[in-house]
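Reopening this ticket.

The earlier resolution said the output was attached, but the attachment link was broken on my side. Pasting everything inline this time so it's all in one place.
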Amino acid sequence: MFRRSVRIACLVIGLLATAGIAYRFLQDEDALARERQSAAAGAAAVGRTAELLLDLRASLHAYVAPGQGLPFWGKRAQETLDQLRQSLVDLDAIVTPAGGSLSESLDAVDQLTAAEQRARTYVSRDEMQLAGDVIFTEVRDLLAAATTQVQSVRERMLRQRDQRSARIRQEQMALAGAAVAVWLIIALLFFPTESVKLVPAVKDPGEWRHELKESLKKPIPTTPQTLAPPQPQVTIVPGIEINALKEVSQICSDLSALSDPGALEGALARVSTLIGATGLIVWIASHDNSTLSPVATNGFDPRLVARIGKIARDSSNLTAAAFRENAARVSAMTEKTPGALAVPMCSPTGAAGVLSIELKPGHTVDDQQVALASIIAAQLATLTMPIQTPAPVENTVSDPQRAAI
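Inline output:
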């Protein structure tokens, strides 16, 4: 989990991003409202123009209809032409920004005005046939052309409005997706991971039990050369020298008082010298026992250990086999590879980790080395298990935690 300041900063960033997205969303809603208003105004203008075209045709047809008075219908035709011209001008102002034009219809109005004057002259002279030719041929074609152009303008306005509305809706969906993505990322950043939990357990000295004894940094004692005759080796267990047992007991004693995880390297260096190893790695199991992670090393390049990373439980190697079977596993020396052994760090619930050791070239793995490594691994296992606090007893001090190595 990140520190409090980092969490607060992430929340502030998320809120600012959400506010910006919400502001843009409201702007899109305003744009949609304007599109609806513009579409309504355009539809009203088109409808008004279409009605005026029909009224003009009816007025002109009345010129030659029997029993109709020319003065009344002539005045009405003139008023209708003026209204039609103004309506077309208003509609042209609406469609021009979108790339439309009603210039042909405006020209047709001028031609209709001239045709209406000719038809009125013919009617006043009682030349009905000539007036009918003008009304039912020239005027008819002009009205049809104007009506067709007005209808095409209306269809174009509807199509463009639908396209603009669709783009705005798509942008709103993208904004909503961006808001969800921002908060998902913030949630993932706050989500605890296994690696985050392991690091404090390794590096926090406050979780170790006591201060480190100075003896962890001592070199392994060596017997100075003397002129006295060599003494026979004394053994306490068949195959294991008493000096090796003394050193192992001292290392285990020092490990039981370990408080600084960084000083564990000193103890591992002494173990490496005692067993005759070129390198050691302490592996700790994850909470679900699915992987092993290196938490302490000696003799290996840290970059190599970093490249190795975690080992899966079902891996086909010596360390994973020792962990799965909860038993020591040995790899014999060959011409190309040195000997190696892996010893499980046992706990009441099974293996809690593995101590893996690579021997020096030319050294074979014997029972003494396996026994010494098992003793060290058993002591390391006590550092990986939490202490079970008994029922409260007077003058009893309990340590609630032990850190993982």
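Reporter confirms the inline version is readable. The chain has two domains: 4-190, 197-220+236-384. Confidence is low (pLDDT under 50) at residues 195-218, 220-228, 230-237, 386-405.
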